[in-house]
Amino acid sequence: MNNKPKIGFISLGCPKNQIDCEVMLKQVADAGYEIVAEDIEADVIIINTCAFIESAKQEAIDNILDVAWLKENRNLSGIIVTGCLAERYREEIFTELPEVDAVLGCGGIHNILDAIESVARKEKYSLFPAIESIGLGGERLVTTPSHYAYLKIAEGCDNRCTYCTIPSIRGRYRSRRPEEIIAEARELEALGARELILVAQDTTRYGKDFSQNVTLSTLIRDITEHTEQVRVRLLYCYPDQITDQLVAEIRDNDRVIKYVDLPIQHISDTVLRRMNRRGGSAAVRGAIKRLREQVPGIVLRTTLITGFPGESEEEFGQLCEFVAKTRFERLGVFPYSREEGTPAYDMPDQIDKSVAEERAQILLRNQMMISAAYADARVGEVLPVVCEGYDPIAERYYGRSDADAPEIDPLVYFTGEKGIKEGAQVNVKITDAINCDLIGEAL
Fold first, then answer.
1. What is the mean pLDDT of each run of 10 residues along the chain (443 residues)?
2. How many other CB atoms are found less than 10 A from the CB of residue 273?
3. Is there a single domain that holds both residue 405 and residue 273?
């Protein structure tokens, strides 16, 4: 009989954090613990947290407090907090959240079994190994649907944007060895993945910490040459590193999805300088121009920040004009979050939070029209769509085209013969567009 505690997991934040959680899941499963899907069934719950901005911190705290109710009212005996919130507030968590029983920093994911054993003995536990000393990668229990997976190619960040806490939490930029990434890509393909989504804090910086000529473009080529059929999608590409070599690889490699996530944050050179963003507006405009001109049908996604300290009405107007003219196919906006420990925290001319939020809503409303027009233009086309499931309420299947990254972009809803399996690729004739989602029928 297995007397080990049942373990529940909650993973918050970005895909990079999700991969860390998958590494811990694998260790816990291999050690013989039962992993339960419902929090109410767990004896110990591990909450892998994000702390990038205020809303992420609040989400993490809310989850901890929600789970703490189970300690008073159900069988839960232990709460383990891991990830960025733990790393950033290592001294405060036990004091401010006494419900927590163990705290592991970002470098402690390989010590999760020690934390569980301590909690089972009713002992408090905390560990914060030097983040830059831990090995990159590790075996994972993949939690995404079997047909796609995230693949982390680097850890940490050297960019030092003035609003960002990541370098202090995750350490300097460290690229994974190409042979390790290729081996993992092959393993993921063997598990059924047909789309690999490359992630890092800055994917385009990949290889710059190696002495030999290793770049993102050479890595992409190696991945596709050493796998049979997986396709590659690129997230977190910084505009100043969109080289001619990378553009050519995206254009010429049939197994690179013609989609690039290009977080630009702003277009005003004055704001970009205060943000300490490399390359300025010239790099942003140049990257977009090369991608649009040289890669037919490329889909560009970006993210923006409104209300950064000192952002004037004129500078915000420049951003609105740029977005209207550039017409990104996909776009997200975040109001500036003032984070202690960052240079921007002490900058003069802080913008009122309500103003930052109002400016974000203006951009999102404008983008909604752009995205809707892009969706309308797809009507009549036949698109390859990967089936993600069936919606019994809408009585339709739903899935993603190449223009859609998982969890962040719109969906394609379509009718078709019964029995279309999750992960199957079908050709869908688009017959309508509702807001930004597409409607069609499988051929």
1. 87 94 97 96 97 91 95 93 94 94 94 96 94 84 96 95 94 96 98 97 96 94 98 97 97 98 98 96 98 98 98 98 98 97 97 98 97 97 98 95 97 95 97 96 97
2. 11
3. no
SS3 256: strand
2 domain-assigned: no
Round the CA-based radius of gyration of the chain to a whole number and report it.
22
Q: Tell me the C-alpha distance between 422 and 264, whole Å.
A: 34
* Domain CATH code at residue 107: 3.40.50.12160
Q: Which residue type is seen at 277?
A: R
Q: Is residue 41 part of a domain?
A: yes
Place of tokens 């009718």: 415
Q: Does 272 fall in a domain?
A: yes
Task: Provide DSSP, 315-343.
Answer: HHHHHHHHHHHH--SEEEEEE----TTSG
Amino acid at 87: E
Q: Alpha-carbon torsion 287, 293, 299, 304, what sign? A: positive
Is there a contact between 228 and 189 (Cβ–Cβ < 8 Å)?
yes
Sequence-distant (6+) residues with CB within 8 A of 397 are 387, 389, 390, 391, 413, 414, 415, 416, 420, 442
| pTM exceeds 0.90 | yes
